[in-house]
Backbone:
């Protein structure tokens, strides 16, 4: 199986099918990022398509010494930040959490685990909705994409110290919002999970 | 701003970014400082909520949709050379249509044509039409110049015109803002 770099080289050589393999390999990561950033499935789908299209259009700018996924997520997160900035009104609120996505999945969930996952997803989405887009992106990339400060800074085109500060402030805000949400049983279950 | 250097250290600790000495320093501080120990507990709760999120499955046809957009992009790129060729031809035609009459007059060829029976009469009419249009434009420019001179000399008139412009632009801005908000509200409702 070809590596991402080999697939990119094939695409640059004119093999469009190789890009389909890249989409297949990374669509889950990009879609999850977009969904977490934007909070709804339709916008997430559009953003995922747009991110892949932009990656295809600018593939010659990709530096093969960097992981392709980091570069792709950088495009996706910046696009999502732009989308959020364009929204003139924010409708998400901790008091009105979004319904959980119908396709939420976990491996062999027990009914109890599924209930926790569903509630957790709603809480997470509502909490994320409270953060400014730059903070939201930093939290998502740190927690769910296991990126280092350096990688997040590169992806969001800022400095490492700015990322440290954003993560710290985001955690402070999230801690306050989580306390307001008053879900001690759920937190206890997740801490024990 | 962090209320103490330990606030930022707690965030770094959650990311595994502290060395042993710093970890020990934070640990000792948390044992001695109740407010910081409380912040630490709250940050750990956030960590517990965010560390294992349920994954969201992308739509089944996402890959096909992405590739369809890429196909459309490639099609538009392949059409691109034709668009460039069309643009060059149109520019060339426009340049010729402007340059030809200029050369025609500059070289004095129009005098020969004016001497011809029918073509000369037609050309004469065209020249008269040009002259009339030119005069009309000059009159309009003069009227505009006089009006601006009056406006500058009369502060009340100037204020009225400026107020009308501000009112008109504000109204347009508010109308556009209202349309955008209404559209977003409708989209959210949908």
Residues:
């Amino acid at each position: 199986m070809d590596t991402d770099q080999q697939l990119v080289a094939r695409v640059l050589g004119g093999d469009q099918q190789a890009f389909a393999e890249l989409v297949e390999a990374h669509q889950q990561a990009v879609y999850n990022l977009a969904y977490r950033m934007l909070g709804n499935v339709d916008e997430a789908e559009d953003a995922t398509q747009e991110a892949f299209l932009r990656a295809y259009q600018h593939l010659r700018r990709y530096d093969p010494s960097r992981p392709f996924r980091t570069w792709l997520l950088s495009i996706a997160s910046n696009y999502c930040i732009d989308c959020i900035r364009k929204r003139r009104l924010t409708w998400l609120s901790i008091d009105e959490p979004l319904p959980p996505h119908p396709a939420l999945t976990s491996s062999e969930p027990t009914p109890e685990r599924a209930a926790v996952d569903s509630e957790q997803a709603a809480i997470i989405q509502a909490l994320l909705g409270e953060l400014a887009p730059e903070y939201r992106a930093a939290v998502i990339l740190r927690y769910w994409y296991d990126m280092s400060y350096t990688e997040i800074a590169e992806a969001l085109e800022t400095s490492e110290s700015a990322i440290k500060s954003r993560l710290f402030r985001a955690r402070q805000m999230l801690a306050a919002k989580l306390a307001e949400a008053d879900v001690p049983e759920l937190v206890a279950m997740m801490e024990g999970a | 701003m962090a209320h103490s250097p330990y606030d930022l250290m707690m965030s770094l600790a959650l990311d595994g970014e502290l060395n042993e000495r710093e970890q020990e320093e934070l640990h000792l501080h948390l044992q001695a400082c109740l407010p910081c120990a409380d912040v630490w507990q709250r940050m750990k709760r956030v960590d517990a909520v965010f560390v294992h999120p349920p994954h969201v499955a992308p739509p089944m046809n996402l890959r096909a949709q992405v590739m369809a957009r890429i196909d459309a992009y490639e099609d538009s790129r392949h059409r691109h050379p034709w668009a460039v060729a069309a643009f060059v031809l149109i520019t060339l035609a426009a340049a010729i249509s402007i340059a030809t009459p200029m050369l025609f007059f500059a070289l004095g060829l129009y005098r020969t044509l004016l001497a011809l029976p029918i073509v000369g009469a037609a050309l004469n009419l065209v020249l008269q039409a040009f002259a009339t249009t030119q005069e009309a434009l000059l009159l309009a420019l003069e009227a505009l110049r006089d009006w601006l001179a009056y406006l500058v000399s009369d502060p009340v008139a100037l204020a009225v015109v400026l107020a009308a412009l501000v009112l008109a632009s504000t109204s347009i801005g508010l109308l556009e803002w209202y349309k955008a908000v209404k559209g977003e509200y409708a989209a959210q409702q949908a």
Summary: Residues 16-38 of chain A form the longest helix (23 residues). The longest strand of chain A covers residues 104-105.
